[in-house]
Amino acid sequence: MNRANANNRHLEPPSVFMDVAGAQDEMDLPSALRSFLLSQWEKAPRTQDVYREAVMALARLQPGTAVKRIRPEDINALFAAMPWAPATRLVRWKGLRAFFDWCERERIVRRNPMAAIARPHAAPPRQPPLYTEADFSALLQACRTYMWVGMRDAAILWTLWTTPARVGELCALTTEDIDWREALLHFRRAKGGNQYRAVLFPPCLEALDRYLRHRPHRQAARVFLAINGQPMTPHGVRLLLRRLADRSRLAKPLYPHALRHRFGMETVRWGLATDVAAKAMGHRTTKATEIYRGWVTEEIALDEVRRRSPQNGR
To answer: Who is most buried in 41, 62, 66, 139, counting CB within 10 A?
Structure first.
């Protein structure tokens, strides 16, 4: 560098030569979270919520602390302080891992504190209640189908009963996702950015058509709407199922993912190969699908014992 350039360099404000990491030295967790979520714009809303919940849980335990000062001991203290179920612990771990991986790439932290935190073991998924056709008929009868909202409720029931829809995928459906000619439902905003299709059986098609013809918000893009015309939320669908279960006096817990598990078990009873069932369920691997095979095998074994035992009174 010649003397003239050297002299000009001293005239520049110091910030021009500041290291990128130095400019972010005192960034706290909420500020970094805001920037992190902006970088995750392709993720599903529920995934972004998972990230937000994980980081804000840590922020509440470490108020005002700069991100670079977060240590592995602070994260261990968070997990020790929170009475989370095993599945929730794993979700929080994943959210914090994604956040601090991003912080490391952006040079907000020099050392990733999550690198020292072991991945929690998830508890095996609980087997859902065994719903019968009589249960489903009682739930349908609980829908007040003389109103458009009741028609919506029936359409939601049919969709959850006859497709493997996750509740977030159900709420994200748009009218363009229904292929009336091919009788298919396109899940374009599935878990993990995946996409898959499901068969729409005639009763489900009929329920969807009836609801969409009668709802007052004809131009709305989303399929399932609340009374105020806004898209339904996963929480709203869970509350709806709870109301229908109460009205029908269903003596079993009813929640959206249990109905997805029910459909997964049906694919095993139909005799679908595991890889084919995984495609039908929108799974990226067969690992999750194998769980359904285990559940159904146990159910068949119990039925055989009941049938063959001389103690059953037959």
So the answer is: 139
